[in-house]
Amino acid sequence: MNSGSRIGQLGWIQVDCADPAVLSEFWAAALGVSVRGTLGDPVHYVVLEAASPGAPRLSFQRVPDPTPGKNKLHLDLAVPDVDVATAALEGLGATRVSGGDITEYEIDWRVLADPEGNQFCVFKAPPGDEPD
To answer: Which of 33, 66, 88, 98 has the fewest CB neighbours in a 10 Å radius?
Structure first.
């Protein structure tokens, strides 16, 4: 396949969870976006607005069983200050993961878990990659 052609475009990043309404509230507040829509009654899917034009949307899907073991995929949030972001995310219901402060390649990372235990990282973006 030619590197200039594409089959598709990343549209949604799906998160399996027990309660998509509750978990979407946490991530909407953490990312500063609103809920775009829901599907099902009771709610089976919740889709958030894209964080920027053309960016993929984060979506939450109700599943009957928890994902065992470590996440195979996680989100990294670029923040101006790791400690300030950690405090704000904890206020929304996140928890710090034991041993989750990591310095790698001169970048400081902190591992947190959302209200359902899905791990994600916050990091101070290197110069030139700071969030808007």
So the answer is: 98
The whole model's pTM is what? 0.80
Radius of gyration of the chain (CA): 16
Q: What are 98's two structure tokens?
A: 């034991």
CA distance 129 to 132: 9
Written as six digits, the tokens of 103 are 């310095």
Q: Is 100 exposed, middle or buried (0-12, 13-18, 19+ CB in 10 A)?
A: middle
Q: How far is CA 17 from CA 29, 44, 60, 67, in A?
A: 17, 10, 7, 8
Which residues contact residue 95 at a Cβ distance below 8 angstroms, ignoring those fewer than 6 apart? 112, 113
Q: 103 pairs with which residues across the strands? A: 108
